[in-house]
């Protein structure tokens, strides 16, 4: 007992002193560890935060190509980023492309018109693609780095390579948003309904009369198959309330973090609605909403 | 929470009946023991939490906490006194740990989940270790569950554990029932332990200080709230949280660690409130706010005991530790008194208590820069709700 180290004999006293010293040292260690100095607790026990990674600056530009991209610990629902597109009528080709190191997986979507299509990654025995044409399909792989796909074909073929990443996509505002005649017609801040969300939503009317919606610095709890919808309600506070009024589909929300631009369908007039809702049809849940305030 | 104490001390004398043969003396609980009342209140709240308030704690986690606490305390009591005593205090400690501690990832309604049960066991062990090992002049220094919870939260960290939310839900039937249980329980328990002044003093000072912070624009973020909690909501969500009432009425009022004299109760209540307010002021997260409140009690309970221990040593010297042989320890001037007081640090329990007293606020303040908590509370960690 730390509070009563009075041994009856010399041996007992020494043992008690040793135990007491160990006890005090344990308290000191706990006291220091609890302060998480230089992140030692997280290093030993682990952190829920992933390591910072550069954001993607384009859905059509590989993640690592943007040397000056900001770094973030935020992660999106995994999404497919375009890496390369190939098409040829030649019988044999060597296709070269790069897959980012942090890619979850990559895919080759192919189609061919005739003969036989065989694709083999350099250094691999098993073919990635082997098909009798006409046919189409998707081949998946998880390796990363510089890839060489040796392709032999009996006829015309097409091949699209995409990599699946989970970093946020930070798209710049398209040039049309700063063109003369474009104006912001409504804006609002995202807030949670069933799940967490943050960021700002702005609706632009282009000079052409079309509408564009921009999500800036946005994040929503990731899930697959999310949708952006417009609701006539001012600020639905529950899934039930949201379902009480008919809403309009705007676009799929494959990426759940970053800054994104969406062109509205031509038949949707956002000025007739009062809020943007992130909807998950998979689990019938209104994730978040942004009440739209008209701007003149 | 409150009314902690050695399981058998209050009634061990009753057990010292003449032993006959191999009969093992058993000490049963006293019906008037306030710890039984408090246990009844906490159990009622646990039931409400399970059926109506969505507490993210499983029945298995609660039972393991209580069982481990009872087993440890029962074993210690048996070793010391050779009696089987009803471990009222340990049961309360285990129940209190399970009432406040949450293991991240536990889902409400998953009643038999043992997910993260090791953190509950750790909290119980730390609680009982503080109670049985850190004793000054025969009395424990800290409220056991308070110190166990605080260090589990600080050492294990926000990625794995968190305290029960300040916000228990909308003001509907389950919450109204919980508030009735808390307030009625407070009247039932505080009256018997005579710590009403402590509780009222804390609440008055705490409400005023947090109100001033709210008026000055202070805010915190919480996973259950979109955007920062500020203004009136800042005051309301902290000061009127059932969690605060449970802390004040049932943890702070522990007669083993809270003073009994009226004047001391005033100072103790107001001092704890002031310290809680100072520690929570820089906290940007709900996690930090709750740890700050727990840390304030750790510090004030320890300061009370340490002040007594240091003044005792200053006046009488450290018997048997060579104080009288030191030339500086003789006399009654300031340096001699200080020297004798510092000799108290040669007592391991005093040194350990002092380390905890210094580290509790230091480590709590360090939480304000913890990026991980901020991401968790903002819901930015990817899983639907990491807590």
Can you put this structure into words, describing what you see?
The complex is a heterodimer of chains A (about 300) and B (about 375). With about 300 residues, chain A is mainly β. Helix content of chain A is about 10%, strand content about 45%. Chain A has helices at about 10-35, 40-45, 240-245, and strands at about 55, 70, 80-90, 90-100, 105-110, 115-120, 130, 135-140, 145-155, 155-165, 170, 185-190, 190, 195-205, 210-220, 225-230, 250-255, 255-265, 275-280, 285-290, 295. In chain A, the strands form 5 sheets. Chain A has a 6-stranded mixed beta sheet, with no helix packed on it. In chain A, strands 13-20-19-16-17 form a 5-stranded antiparallel beta sheet. A 4-stranded antiparallel beta sheet of chain A has the order 3-10-5-8, with no helix packed on it. The longest helix of chain B is centred in the C-terminal third of the chain and has 31 residues, at about 285-315. Chain B starts with 11 loop residues before the first helix and ends in a 10-residue tail after the last helix. In chain B, helix 2 packs parallel to helix 4 and helix 8 runs antiparallel to helix 9 (about 230-240). Chains A and B meet through helix 1, helix 2 and strand 13 of A and strand 4, helix 6, helix 14 and helix 15 of B.
């Amino acid at each position: 007992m730390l509070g009563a180290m009075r041994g009856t004999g010399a041996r007992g006293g020494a043992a008690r002193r040793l135990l007491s010293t160990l006890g005090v040292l344990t308290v000191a260690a706990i006291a220091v560890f609890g302060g998480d100095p230089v992140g030692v607790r997280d290093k030993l026990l682990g952190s829920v935060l992933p390591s910072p990674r550069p954001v993607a600056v384009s859905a059509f530009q590989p993640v690592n190509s943007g040397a000056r991209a900001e770094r973030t610990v935020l992660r999106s629902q995994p999404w497919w980023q375009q890496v390369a597109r190939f098409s040829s009528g030649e019988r044999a080709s060597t296709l070269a492309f790069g897959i980012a190191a942090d890619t979850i997986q990559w895919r080759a979507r192919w189609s061919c018109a005739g003969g036989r299509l065989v694709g083999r990654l350099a250094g691999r025995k098993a073919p990635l693609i082997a098909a009798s044409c006409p046919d189409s399909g998707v081949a998946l792989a998880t390796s990363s780095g510089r890839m060489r796909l040796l392709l032999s074909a009996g006829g015309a073929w097409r091949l699209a390579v995409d990599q699946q990443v989970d970093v946020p996509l930070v798209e710049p505002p398209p040039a049309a948003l700063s063109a003369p005649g474009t104006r912001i017609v409504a804006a609002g801040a995202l807030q949670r309904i069933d799940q967490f969300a943050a960021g700002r939503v702005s609706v632009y009317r282009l000079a052409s009369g079309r509408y564009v919606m921009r999500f800036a610095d946005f994040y929503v709890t990731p899930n697959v198959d999310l949708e952006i919808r417009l609701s006539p309600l001012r600020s639905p506070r529950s899934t039930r309330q949201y379902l009480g009024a008919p809403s309009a589909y705007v676009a799929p929300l494959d990426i759940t973090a970053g800054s994104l631009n969406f062109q509205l369908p031509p038949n949707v007039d956002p000025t007739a609605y009062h809020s943007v809702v992130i909807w998950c049809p998979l689990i019938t849940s209104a994730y978040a909403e942004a009440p739209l305030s008209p701007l003149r | 929470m409150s009314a902690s104490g050695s399981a058998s001390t209050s009634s061990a004398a009753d057990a010292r009946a003449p032993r006959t043969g191999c009969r093992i003396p058993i000490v049963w609980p006293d019906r008037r023991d306030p710890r039984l009342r408090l246990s009844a209140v906490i159990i009622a709240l646990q039931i409400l939490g399970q059926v109506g308030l969505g507490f993210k704690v499983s029945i298995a986690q609660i039972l393991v906490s209580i069982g481990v606490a009872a087993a440890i305390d029962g074993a210690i009591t048996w070793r010391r006194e050779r009696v089987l005593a009803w471990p009222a205090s340990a049961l309360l400690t285990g129940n209190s740990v399970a009432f406040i501690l949450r293991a991240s990832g536990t889902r409400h309604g998953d009643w038999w989940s043992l997910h993260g049960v090791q953190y509950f066991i750790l909290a119980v062990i730390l609680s009982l270790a503080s109670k049985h090992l850190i004793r000054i002049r025969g009395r424990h220094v800290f409220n056991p569950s308070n110190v166990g919870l605080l260090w589990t939260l600080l050492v294990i960290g926000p990625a794995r554990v968190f305290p029960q939310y300040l916000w228990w839900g909308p003001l509907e039937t389950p919450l109204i029932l919980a508030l009735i249980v808390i307030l009625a329980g407070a009247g039932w328990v505080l009256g018997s332990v005579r710590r009403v002044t402590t509780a009222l003093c804390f609440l008055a000072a705490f409400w005023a200080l947090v109100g001033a912070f709210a008026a000055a624009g202070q805010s915190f973020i919480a996973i259950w709230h979109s955007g920062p909690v500020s203004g009136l909501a800042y005051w309301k969500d902290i000061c009127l949280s059932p969690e605060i009432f449970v802390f004040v009425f049932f943890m702070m009022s522990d007669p083993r660690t809270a003073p009994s004299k009226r004047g001391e109760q005033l100072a103790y209540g107001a001092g704890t409130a002031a310290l809680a307010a100072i520690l929570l002021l820089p906290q940007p997260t709900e996690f930090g706010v709750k740890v700050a409140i727990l840390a304030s009690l750790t510090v004030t309970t320890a300061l009370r005991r340490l002040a007594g221990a240091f003044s005792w040593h200053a006046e009488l010297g450290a018997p048997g530790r060579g104080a009288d042989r030191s030339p500086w320890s003789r006399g009654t001037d300031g340096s001699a008194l200080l020297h004798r007081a510092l000799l108290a640090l040669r007592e391991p329990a005093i040194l350990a208590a002092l380390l905890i007293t210094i580290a509790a606020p230091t480590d709590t303040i360090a939480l304000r820069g913890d990026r991980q908590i901020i991401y968790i509370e903002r819901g930015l960690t990817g899983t639907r709700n990491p807590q």
